Amino acid sequence: MSGRQRAPALRVRTRRELRQFRRGRAHSCWDHLYAAPLWPLHGANLGTLLRTCDAVGACLIVPRFPWVPEALARGDTLRRPACVHWTGDPLGWLERQRARGLRVIGVELAEGAVRLADLPPVRQATVVVLGHEQSGVPPEALDLLDSAVEIPMIGTGASLNVAVAGSLVLYKAAGLL
């Protein structure tokens, strides 16, 4: 036998084992971490983001666009209801959350933004704001942010889609990465 040692055999956990480490029932509202894609462009991203919210214990805030309910239903593969809140006024909703004392973090390429790797887990109720995939967080919403987080990229693209960017930031903010 060569000098290489064998890695221990990996074993996939059973569904029963996995359930032991997860919450027993769906939540009505965690009231701690919110994903807010308030200016979505593509419906497919909302379903993916909804599953990420469930995975990290976050609530999803969505605008009352006519196509959003169908997009959520199509992308929702969860067996239990997820926590979804609706808003018809994204800027007003953000202002109300700040008034309630929530921290508001935008995922945006902005001067002074924190790199994703340096984002600490949230310690207080926090809203993660996700902008439009082509134009980002609108200028009138930037003043409502307490801070911004930037996802570094070395490729030629300027940004990731909302589902991917939101998932990365939510996992980091929840302290799961």
UniProtKB/TrEMBL annotation:
<dbReference type="Pfam" id="PF00588">
    <property type="entry name" value="SpoU_methylase"/>
</dbReference>
<protein>
    <submittedName>
        <fullName>RNA methyltransferase</fullName>
    </submittedName>
</protein>
<dbReference type="GO" id="GO:0006396">
    <property type="term" value="P:RNA processing"/>
</dbReference>
<dbReference type="InterPro" id="IPR029028">
    <property type="entry name" value="Alpha/beta_knot_MTases"/>
</dbReference>
<keyword id="KW-0489">Methyltransferase</keyword>
<dbReference type="InterPro" id="IPR029026">
    <property type="entry name" value="tRNA_m1G_MTases_N"/>
</dbReference>
<keyword id="KW-0808">Transferase</keyword>
<dbReference type="GO" id="GO:0008173">
    <property type="term" value="F:RNA methyltransferase activity"/>
</dbReference>
<dbReference type="GO" id="GO:0032259">
    <property type="term" value="P:methylation"/>
</dbReference>
<dbReference type="InterPro" id="IPR001537">
    <property type="entry name" value="SpoU_MeTrfase"/>
</dbReference>
<dbReference type="GO" id="GO:0003723">
    <property type="term" value="F:RNA binding"/>
</dbReference>
<feature type="domain" description="tRNA/rRNA methyltransferase SpoU type">
    <location>
        <begin position="44"/>
        <end position="171"/>
    </location>
</feature>
<dbReference type="InterPro" id="IPR051259">
    <property type="entry name" value="rRNA_Methyltransferase"/>
</dbReference>
